[in-house]
């Protein structure tokens, strides 16, 4: 019996949730710290233009992470369902398909992205001031895309296989090493944004090495077996991971949309102010991703084991946790906006004031974000994909783009900052009014896994 089976079959839902959630939350905070640390060192060591340039390149991370989540979460969900159903052979086969698949896909994407860095940077919102820095950063990230993707996918499987503490440990090592390398490469070697990108890659590789410890555990369910390319498994991995792929794709749309809107309404000052907020947003956003990541293996396992009351209890605990985080983040934004902006070495008062105003408005969205991720993950984890995809499309694409187009016409930059809270808020209200009662009251059924 694997470690995940031992825990989830014998423990209370509350104990299992916090065993997954606390190390996952710490891990996600440290993952986001890697990106925020880049921003702090770039802003203080190079300047606001370089900071804005790295922010322009952030969609590269979204491309890599979205593909990683497509294969990693899709494979991890199917792995947990099959483990709950005691189908060990299929579970191991799914793991191998995910690892081989991400290697092939990321090698191709990394090569294309490296060659096409300049047109991609312009597409992502780079202007003449930020283009060169953005290209330098992007080419390093694309060059080492397979390593970045392996780390993401393997951390998901390690967590799903009952070792969230080890997944957290890899991120601790990565975050601490990233601090040291950023300082060394930017301030000592003066490698500018190239150094920031290399620091992230090397730190991520160190985290990847930590995850390999899991394979030496006696109770590990992850085994390297000969890959078997079965159509049903490939299709199910793709289907189960598609909502996360869309969600991370929505992150790229979010960054590009905000870059374009702020460049139009506020120029380079607006881009620099958004770069500060986007670094902070990465930190907050990954906390809510952490809730979804925590409940996914639980719900998928309970679904495979037909423990339906445990699924409902998991959703309830996650809702309370998501609302608590949202209130906490909003309070931090309202009362600490000035301090948050200061740590990025902002050079002008205009950028500082615009960023502070943006924080107080933008952070309202965190009140609603937890609900949206919980229900997206719930439907995905029971292999009921249509509602999960619908939630992702509406909050991350349709409503967000509409808000970015319409609200600035009426409210200027205030409307841009409010676009995300409006999109998240409307989605959450719909889910609470129309979806929650059905989730808590109906008997679950098979959705074609």
From TrEMBL:
It comes from the Bacteria. The chain crosses the membrane at residues 20-41, 61-82, 94-117, 137-158, 170-189, 195-216, 245-267, 279-303, 323-346, 358-378, 390-410, 416-435. Signal peptide: none annotated. Its main location: membrane. InterPro entries: MATE_fam, MATE_MepA-like, MATE_MepA_subfamily, MdtK-like. It is a multi-pass membrane protein. It holds the Pfam family MatE. It is found in: Cell membrane. Keywords: Antibiotic resistance, Cell membrane, Membrane, Transmembrane, Transmembrane helix, Transport. Belongs to the multi antimicrobial extrusion (MATE) (TC 2.A.66.1) family. MepA subfamily. This is Multidrug export protein MepA. It comes from Lentibacillus salinarum.
């Amino acid at each position: 019996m694997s470690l995940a089976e031992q825990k989830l079959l014998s423990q209370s839902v509350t104990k299992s949730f916090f065993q997954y959630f606390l190390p996952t939350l710490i891990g996600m905070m440290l993952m986001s710290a890697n990106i925020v640390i880049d921003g702090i060192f770039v802003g203080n060591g190079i300047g606001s233009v370089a900071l804005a340039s790295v922010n322009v390149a952030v969609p590269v991370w979204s491309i890599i992470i979205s593909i990683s989540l497509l294969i990693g979460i899709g494979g991890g969900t199917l792995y947990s369902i099959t483990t709950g159903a005691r189908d060990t052979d299929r579970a191991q086969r799914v793991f191998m398909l995910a690892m081989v698949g991400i290697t092939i896909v990321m090698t191709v994407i990394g090569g294309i992205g490296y060659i096409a860095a300049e047109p991609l940077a312009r597409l992502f919102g780079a202007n003449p001031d930020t283009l060169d820095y953005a290209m330098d950063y992007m080419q390093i990230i694309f060059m080492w895309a397979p390593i970045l993707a392996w780390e993401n996918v393997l951390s998901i499987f390690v967590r799903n296989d009952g070792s969230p503490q080890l997944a957290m440990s890899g991120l601790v090592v990565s975050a601490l090493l990233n601090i040291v390398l950023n300082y060394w490469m930017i301030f000592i070697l003066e490698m500018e944004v190239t150094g920031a990108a290399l620091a992230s890659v090397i730190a991520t590789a160190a985290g990847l090495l930590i995850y390999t410890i899991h394979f030496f555990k006696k109770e590990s369910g992850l085994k390297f077996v000969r890959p078997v390319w079965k159509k049903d498994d490939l299709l199910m991995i793709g289907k189960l991971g598609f909502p996360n792929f869309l969600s991370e794709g929505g992150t790229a749309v979010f960054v590009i949309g905000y870059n374009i809107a702020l460049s139009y309404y506020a120029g380079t000052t607006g881009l620099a102010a958004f770069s500060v907020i986007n670094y902070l947003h990465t930190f907050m956003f990954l906390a809510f991703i952490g809730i979804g990541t925590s409940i996914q293996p639980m719900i998928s396992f309970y679904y495979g084991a037909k423990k339906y009351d445990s699924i409902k209890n998991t959703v309830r605990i996650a809702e309370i946790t998501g609302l608590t985080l949202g209130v906490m983040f909003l309070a931090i934004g309202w009362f600490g906006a000035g301090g948050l902006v200061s740590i990025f070495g902002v050079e002008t008062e205009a950028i500082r004031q615009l960023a502070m105003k943006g924080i107080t408005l933008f952070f309202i969205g965190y009140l609603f974000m937890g609900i949206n991720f919980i229900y997206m993950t719930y439907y995905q984890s029971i292999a009921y994909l249509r509602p999960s995809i619908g939630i992702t499309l509406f909050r991350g694409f349709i409503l967000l783009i509409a808000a970015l187009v319409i609200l600035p016409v009426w409210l200027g930059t205030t409307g841009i900052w409010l676009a995300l809270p409006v999109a998240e808020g409307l989605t959450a209200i719909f889910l609470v009014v129309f979806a929650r009662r059905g989730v808590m009251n109906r008997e679950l059924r098979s959705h074609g896994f």
